[in-house]
Amino acid sequence: MNIRKIEAQKQEVKKLRVAAYCRVSTDNDDQRDSLETQKQHFEAWIRLHSDWEYAGVFYDFGITGTKAEVRDGLQALLYECRIGRIDYVLTKSVSRFARNTVDCLSIVRELLSYGIPIYFEKENLDTGSMESELILSIISSLAQDESESISKNVKWSAQKRMENGSYKIGCVPYGYTKNEHGDMVIVPEEADVIQYIFNSVVSGMGVYKIAKNLNARHIPTRKGGNWSPTTLLDILVNEKYVGDALFQKTYTDSNFHRHDNHGEMKMHLMQEHHEPIISRELFEKAGAILSQRVKERGIQKGTAKYQQRYAFSGRIICGQCGDKFKRQTYTSGITWACKTHLFHKSDCSMKYIRDDAVKAAFVNMMNKLIFARKLMLRPLCEALRIAGSDENLQRILHLKEELQHNAERKDELRKLRARGIIDSVLYNQEVSRIEKQSDEFRAEIKGLGNAESGSSLKEAERLLKYVESADMLSGFSDDLFTDFVENITVYDRTHIGFQLKCGLTLKEELCTGTESKMESP
Predict the structure, then answer these.
(1) Rounded Cα distance, 136 and 124, in Å
(2) Most buried of 71, 126, 248, 450, CB within 10 angstroms?
């Protein structure tokens, strides 16, 4: 009998990939030192364990712990966990990790679903060995209560400084900067722009024209971007340009969301707070002119009428660049023009269309539907009744996958920016592109969902019911347009498409003459 000795094979022990998370809420020097101490502490702790593999220290500097989505370091950590590069997470305390109970529990649950526990050093709490979330819920609630208490104390202190006039403005507007004492001082070249804006309004120029002139002169905003009418309107109502300071224009609610103050909180107006850029007389003249324009156009700020005061407002879309059209009034009549073309002609060559031509095209389109309802709308209603929803469902699932892919891409970008691999400009551009695409996906999902619930069929039946009893139209009706039309796509100066709420898109030709003529169907 032969006996052969088989040596035991040395098993390679897989090391635990451990990462840490640190955060400080302010950006002053002592907090910077605290952050560096935390980072060194965790790195040394991880490297001290022979069975641990260092997976990085993620951190946020000068960022509140009440909102997880604004912390790039935390988002980078979560991304690494989601793609399977981390097995265990260390952090100093619950309050350093998150001061919002909902965020804290949500993140803990997500990481546990990947099999990744979190160890809170101060509380000696390991989520991997917890039988219940009760302890964590209590501790994180205390952290949130502490944050709310600190917030209340800070607000009380700020209110007192507002009342006695010692409050320092954190972010000064265009035209000003802060000196070494924190006081507002004028920036001469920016002050010239402010004076130009106010004087232009008083001389009768509109904000769109002013913005266009500033951009043509290559005068950047403080952030280096282009001027817009909204930016100018904010400037024209800002009391700081006459030397006053109105405190508490905004406030933060109990859920840490910021709102405009419409009387919910006390405000304090301090006159002659700093050196003015324009006279009070010029400020009041400009304000009176803006108020008169608002009154003449029937604009009610903060209401739906402010956003959609004309039937076509927000409904005419450029087929070339996708931007919306803006209403313009000239002595020759009313036109609609692509906003991108108005401010950046090199980005879009689409020219204006006449208001009366669009109205005439709508009348033609409706008369054709009335005339040919048996050939168009009845077959459409029948097709919608028998059409299944399988195709829509598959498309919705695909779009949701794309949304998830975009979310992962944003997490990846946050990680890259947190590590300094990409700069803020590239990060913002890419995130903006992704968010725009995601908004389009969500809008399509919503539309498909409506189609599944029979929305298109109901709209088609409603339109059919109208045309079956209607006489030929002789003129345009705002109510009729808004009842049946979702939006208008401008293909070129002579062709537009009416996208109806029932799902049909009907192409019409525009009359380009000085007077649009009504055509028979």
Answers:
(1) 11
(2) 71
User: Contact 512/494 with Cβ under 8 angstroms?
Assistant: yes
3-state class of 170 per DSSP? coil
Strands 333-338, 268-270: pairing is: unpaired
Distance CA 271, CA 243 (A): 7
Whether 490 and 496 have beta carbons less than 8 Å apart is answered as yes
Side chain identity, residue 56: G
- The neighbouring-strand residues paired with 486 are none
pTM of the model: 0.37
Residue partners of 251: CB distance under 8 A and separation at least 6? 258, 259, 261, 264, 265
Q: What is the pLDDT of residues 150-174, one digit of tens each?
A: 555 555 555 666 566 555 666 788 9
Return left, alpha or beta for 503; rule: phi > 0 is left, psi -120 to 50 is alpha, else beta: left
Structure tokens at 42: 């965790």
Question: With contact defined as beta carbons under 8 Å apart, do 411 and 68 qualify?
Answer: no
- How far apart, in whole angstroms, are the C-alpha atoms of residue 460 and residue 380? 7
Question: Domain locations in the chain?
Answer: 16-147, 176-303, 356-390+436-509
Is the domain covering 16-147 a CATH 3.40.50.150 domain? no
CATH number given to 176-303: 3.90.1750.20
Give which of 224, 236, 223 is closest to 195, Cα–Cα.
Answer: 236
Strands in 256-370 per DSSP E: 258-260, 268-270, 316-318, 325-330, 333-338, 353-354
Q: Residue 179, Cβ neighbours under 10 Å: how many?
A: 8
